[in-house]
Amino acid sequence: MNLSTSLYTIAGIGPSLGKRLAYLNLNTVEDMIYHFPFRYDDFSNITNALESQVGEKVTLQGEIWSIRNIYTRTRKVLTQAVFNDGTSPIELTWFNQSWLTNQIKTGDRLQVSGKVSKYKNKISIMAPVWEKMNSEFRIQNSELLHTGRLVPVYPETAGLTSKWIRAKVDQVLPKVIDEIEDPLPSDIRAQMLELREAIKLIHFPDSYKDVENARERLGFDELFLIQLATLKTRLEWKDKPAIEKLQVTRYKKQIEEFIKSLPFKLTKAQEKVIEEIKEDLQKGQPMNRLVQGEVGSGKTVVAAVIAYIAHLNGLRILYMAPTEILAFQHESTLNRLLEPYGIGVGIYTGSKKFNRIKDERLMIKEKNHQSSIINHQSFPDIVVGTHALLSDKLAVEDVGLIIVDEQQRFGVEQRGLLRSKARVPHFLTMTATPIPRTVALTLYGDLDLSVIDELPVGRKPVKTYVVPSKKRADAYEFIRKKVKEGDQVYIITPLIELSETLITVKAAKAEFERLKDKIFPELKLGLLHGRLKSKEKEQVLNDFKDKKTQILVSTSVVEVGVDVTNATIMVIEGAERFGLAQLHQLRGRVGRGEKESFTFLFPGIEDSQTVSRLRNLEKTYDGLKLAELDLKIRGSGELFGTRQSGRFELKIASFSDLSLIEKTREAAKKILSKDPTLDKYHKLKVKLLAFGSGVMPD
Ligand code: ADP
Ligand code: MG
Hints:
Its EC number is 5.6.2.4. This is ATP-dependent DNA helicase RecG. It is an enzyme of class 5 (isomerase). This protein has 24 helices and 21 strands. It is α/β, with parallel strands linked by helices. Among the domains are: 112 residues, CATH 2.40.50.140; 167 residues, P-loop containing nucleotide triphosphate hydrolases (Rossmann fold); 158 residues, Rossmann fold. The longest helix has 31 residues.
């Protein structure tokens, strides 16, 4: 057996268990030993039944006096045993484990651990963990696995209990531990545990101090590798072959004129970011920049200015957005801004391919650049699209600038694929996800970062209220009144599953019907969800923009980007299912005009914890603060998307551990400054290669 041995081949693990393991992403022995416990049960308190207090976690040693299965009316099985440790007999109860009576017999000596409870006035332990002892009532400390110590608890899946995983780890770990090589050079490892020791202790610690030390070391490795990967990519990017510098000064006048022609004055922050990007374009190296800016901070227009500059330099532009709705919207914005300059903007989504390009526009283009256009007549200067842009069918020449909006919605591979559509393009990505700077530097350490940290003037904070169910009717009345005054409303239906499945859509339809028939029969409502055909989506959105409908009922697809200034109220159903930062992004859809605007959060669960989490949105309008709060409340991270996944999954470290982030970043910088190729750090390089295949280039 070695680290890469497939778990299937290990005695006691057949195909069916193998499948369950694969479900946890456990395929090899190495995966298994890197499957870390997420908490520990402290069963180190070895005591006796007489002195055990209700609610206490204890370990007892004693003898089974009797054991039997009881079948309840609901076809459940209870296994009940009387257990005596010589001080006072107590009851042990297990649920649905009828096979236990084959394993535990009257007269067996056991050590059991669990939480003490009182049942019908008798002391008992529900679902205790147990292990057998020899006849002397003794277990060598080293034999203890499930009881009498700090017992690791693992992420489980149906049919794989912590107890089973624990036993397997205990079985395989000693056989492969010597194979584990510590990739850290000793000066970086410094006072931290050796890797072997850390792995042993994370599974089988003797104390919480051990756990802490092991976590420190393993967490360090995790973040350190991310830092190395991103910093190294950044270095390599800087070494890319030089490309032609774009002309910015030559077109100074045109650029200024274009900016002057915008319907508003740019904010200082927008100007600053445009300057940063201009610098990139003139460097003679491909740009690789992330623009981060709150919802509504005006990223699109920044992208438009940059696209214009690229166009002046004779480059073609691809602009990718995560949803069709958003792609349509960008296309229409860019058209409005750039058409007067004779620039053709086309759309490319699953259902629409350039069919908006009018012949006149091609004519204008032809006039402007006689020679270059001939071969690519059917191609617009700027192609806005969805994932469809990645299709093989779309062959693009001369692409020199790629813009990715809402980049967090795309996977690494997708971004890589888009980039490969051009030889050495300038790459501009944008996100509204507020990420604390240190975290951004880690996750996106390979990118240059620009922040639009200012909203256009005149934006009023969106008044936000968590609305209890008994106030729901009042909220509807308020909405009715506002609609009569000419305002428009979004109603967001609950996110039932992570992605927009049929179930989510069904729920949205049901809510739409309810609102239309029962609550607002006199108003016009539209329904928007991801499963509509693109024509329908466009229609629904246009009707809302044109005020033909007053209320837009929608799944959270409007989260990204939709821009309707007259909408002033946003209702979010099932608000607890979203992360705070996500809710903040949603409410950014309103409050875009001069009028006062509102967000009503309707929680589906009204316990105090949920409500107080949501209340943060009543008090805070700072997306970054809310993101940090999400990080802190990260326990239920997956659904809230706070793991910032899509890029790196953290098993043990946390993006909220700023000091570890700093420390690993410094260490990575230090080692790369000594040896940029890591040739002298072979083990580290191997580790990095294994880790980083999906990472670079982003
Ligand atoms: P986001 O950064 O969320 O993508 P958008 O680009 O959609 O934001 O811009 C939000 C709204 O703000 C749009 O209606 C846009 O026209 C407007 N806007 C952008 N910049 C300014 C500005 N400097 N002053 C006033 N309004 C602006
Ligand atoms: Mg946007």
